Amino acid sequence: MTQTLRYASDVAFTSTIKEIQTRKGSRHAYARMESGDGWGTTITPDLAAFIGEQTSVFLGTANAEGQPYIQHRGGPPGFLHVIDDKTIAFADFRGNRQFITQGNLAENPKAHLFLIDYAQRRRVKVWGEARVIENDAGLLAKLMPPDYQSRGEQVILLKVQAWDANCPQHIPQRLEAADVARLLEQRDRRIAELETELAALKGRQSREH
To answer: What is the sign, positive or negative, of the torsion defined by CA atoms of 40, 42, 47, 53?
Structure first.
């Protein structure tokens, strides 16, 4: 059951964590954040656009005993769907069939999404509660990426409780292979254009002399 929080950030900032923040000198800054705009509780258009661009996400869950587990999920841009301003869903592709995430969610619905864009050096953390939806072929088909060469097995649906975007500090800048290939293609095309212009210029100079 989703807990009622005074501040959205209380989903992460427990009393113990706030005590540590106080001891280490950061509580004042976070208290000011809480009294201002604070963390988001609904998916904004900007966040929805960011989610829709991602090809990779890390999903954190924990079982009834509190043992954590992080699983990677990936797919083409758009495989993560924003259903409404509180809901994210995606097709769960057939994998190694360990079903650790599904088992954890059956015992403990609390979940965490960690999204990171290395090219733009941006990361977003999303807290919420998730569930697995089985035997809904219509919903699964709606969430499956078109022409994607993987079998969708079920659906994972997450209700957003809070989210926060981190600063880019310490995030290494990396480019996707497809982006690098596109940039190299643009470079090669431009080189070919310049070589053609240079050959034409040399030909014109030769005729003039």
So the answer is: positive
Q: What is the pTM of this model?
A: 0.80
**For residue 86, what are the contacts with CB-CB under 8 A and spacing of at least 6?**
42, 43, 159, 160
CA-CA distance, 79 to 76, in Å (whole number)?
6
Q: Find out whether 78 and 145 touch, Cβ atoms under 8 Å.
A: yes
- CA-to-CA distance for 151 and 92, rounded, in angstroms? 9
In this predicted model, what pLDDT tens digit does every residue of 27-64 receive, in sequence order?
999 999 998 888 999 999 999 999 999 999 999 999 99
- Burial class of 57 by CB neighbour count within 10 A (0 to 12, 13 to 18, 19+): buried
- Token look-up 């609904």 returns 42
Q: Is 29 left (phi over 0), alpha (psi -120 to 50) or beta?
A: alpha
Q: Pick the closest to residue 75 from 86, 59, 63, 62 (CA basis).
A: 59
- Name the residue among 138, 130, 135, 137 with its Cα closest to residue 157: 130
